[in-house]
Design goal:
Elements: H1 15-25, E1 29-36, E2 41-42, E3 48-49, E4 53-75, E5 78-90, E6 101-106, E7 116-123, E8 130-137
Antiparallel strand pairs: 1-4, 1-6, 2-3, 4-5, 5-8, 6-7, 7-8
Length: about 140
């Protein structure tokens, strides 16, 4: 049997679309993704008022700590540890952007619930089953 040559495609055109339901079915967490549409302000008395956000996505997701997930930063005299996560969401969700905000609302691992993340990268590829977001922990 001859091997596929240059210019031939070994994947069926619907290969990714066929596998997307399996990826979605394996998503056991839920999240809300929002986008800041106006900046926050600080009043003359120092009171902080957060900016306005709009919801971009609400639904299932998969959250995985990335292998090199710890980064130590020094803030003033305190050492802070920040973790990085990959968050997979449905492939057909609306367009997501760097700096969108991810709030984990449901997860089998209770330590993830209420985790607040910021999108720092979005993975794109020619064959995709889900949209993969690289996120850093954030503090509001």
């Amino acid at each position: 049997m001859p091997l596929a040559g240059v210019g031939s495609n070994i994947f069926h055109p619907a290969w990714s679309a066929f596998h997307r339901p399996a990826a979605t079915a394996s998503m056991t967490a839920e999240c809300i993704i929002t986008r800041q549409i106006s900046p926050g302000t600080t009043a003359t008395d120092g009171t902080w008022t957060p900016g306005t956000t709009t919801t971009i996505y609400t639904g299932v997701c998969r959250v995985v700590a990335l292998p090199t997930n710890e980064r130590i930063r020094v803030a003033g005299e305190a050492q802070e540890t920040h973790r990085r996560y990959q968050v997979g969401v449905r492939y057909d969700c609306t367009t997501l952007l760097i700096d969108d905000l991810v709030d984990i609302t449901v997860a089998v691992d209770a330590g993830l619930v209420a985790k607040k993340l910021r999108v720092t990268d979005i993975a794109y590829g020619s064959e995709q089953w889900q949209r993969n977001l690289v996120c850093d922990e954030r503090e509001d």
